[in-house]
Amino acid sequence: MLDSFERITLENGLRIILAPLPAFRSVTAIVLCGAGSRYEKEETNGVSHFLEHMFFKGTKKRPRAVDISHALDEIGADYNAFTSKEVTGYHIKSASSHLPLVLDMISDMVWNSKFDHAEIEKERGVIIEEINMYEDTPMRRVAEIYEQVLWPNQPLGWDIGGRKEVIKALKREDFLAYIEARYVPNNLVVALAGDFIKKEALALIKKHFGWKAGHDVSTYLPVLENQTKPKLRIVYKKTDQAHLVVGMRGFKLGHPERYSAAILATILGGGMSSRLFVNVREKRGLAYYVRADHESYLDTGTLAASAGVDLSRIDEALKVILSEFKEIARSPVPVRELKKAKEYVKGKVVLSWEDSRTVAFAYGTDELLEGRVRTLDEYLGKIDAVGIEDVAGVAKFLFSNNKLNLAVIGPFKDEEKFKKILKI
Question: Are 4 and 19 in contact (CB under 8 A)?
C-alpha cells in the first residue's frame, strides 16, 4: 500500500497529499512551505530558519513554548521542524487517535504564533549559538563553504542559518512580513501518511487550513552559472583533521540524469565497499569518513565527495579522490559493481519508507517542489533503469569539464599546493 495516495487541491490553492498506511497505528502530519534561504534577501538571510524556531515559542491559543511541548509530550508525539534552502517543514507523528490534536496544533503554530518580543530576544541568542556550534563543527561547516564556492554571492550559496549580524538585526516586523509573503495556502503542502480515515482527515485539514485566502508568491532567483575554471577556498582553522569537499555542479530536480548521478555517487562514495572508502580509507588509512553524494535543487545540483583526512596527507587524499573521478569517467563501470550500487540505493530507500515520516516527507516535497508525486515503485523503477552507458555518460559530462570546486578547513595558509592539484 506504499504507492497508494490521493492528491487534493482546495479552492485557496492548498495542496493535500493523503497516503493511507493501514498496517500502521500511527500517523504523520507534515506541513511544508516553499520557504528557505534561497527565497531571502541579504538583509533577511536567516529569517526562514529563525521563523521556524519561533513557531514553537507560543501561539494565541497556547501562549508559552511549554504549552506546545506539554500538549505534544502528553500524547507521546514525535515532533520537530527543519529549514533547508528551498523548503521549511513542520511535522508531528503520533498515535492515529490523536490526529485531531495534531492538526489543530500544527495549524495553530503556522497561523497564530505570537512572536513575543521577549521570546524573539531569547531565541536570537539560541540561534547565534547554533551558528557558533556549526562553525566549530568543521565536518558540517566545510559543506557550507563548498556551496559558497559553488554559488558565490547568490541566495543558493547562502548559509541556511544566516549571518550573525543579520540575526542580531531581525525584527518582529521582518517575521510578519515574511509570513505574509510566503506562508500562504498556495505555497503550502499538507501531507498525511499512516493510519487515518480519509473523510475525517480531509475535514480536519479543510477546517484548519481551508479558511485562509492565497495570493501570488515570488519565485526564486535562478542561479548564475559562469564558472570557467576550478575554484577553491581554504579556511584557516587549528584542527586535528583536515576537512574537504570537492565537486562540481550536477543535475536539477526533474532532470532525467539525476538518477544516473545518484548511482554514480553511490559507486564512488556510498557505503563501506565504495571506491572512495576502499581507496582513501581502507587501503591508505587517510581518512575516517569519506563519502560522495548528489543533491538536486530546483534549477541546479551538485555531486561532491567529502572527507576528514590526516593533516599531513591531505595532498595525497585529494589526489586519490580526483583520480577516482577520472577513472570512473574513463572506464565503464563493471556490471556487478553497477548492480551492487543500484541494490544499495534501492535497499536504503525501501528501509526508510517503513517510517510514515519518510512517506509524508517524500510525497509532500515532491508535490511542493515539482508539482507531482513519485511513488516508491516509480523511484525504484528509475534506479533499475540506469545502465552502464548512463553512468559513463554522466561521469564523462561531470568530471571532464574542468569546473571543480574545492573547500578545505584546516591549519593551512598557503593555497598554492591546492591550486597545483586542481591545475589552476
Answer: yes
Of 178, 162, 170, give the one whose Cα is nearest residue 110: 178
DSSP 251-305: --TT-TTHHHHHHHHHHHHSSTTSHHIIIIIITT--EEEEEEEEEE-SS-EEEEE
Nearest to 186 by CA among 79, 356, 34: 34
End-to-end alpha carbon distance in the chain: 53
352-402 pLDDT per residue, tens: 999 999 999 999 999 999 999 999 999 999 999 999 999 999 999 999 777
d(CA 391, CA 78): 39
Q: In terms of Cα–Cα distance, which of 186, 224, 227 is closest to 403?
A: 227
Closest CA to 321 of 288, 285, 282, 291: 291
Q: Tell me the whole-structure pTM to 2 decimals.
A: 0.95
Residues that are catalytic: 52
Helix or strand run (H / E) with residue 89: strand 88-95
Q: Please check whether residue 372 is in contact with residue 366, taking contact to mean a CB–CB distance below 8 angstroms.
A: yes
Say whether 170 sits in a helix, a strand or coil: coil
Amino acid at 232: L
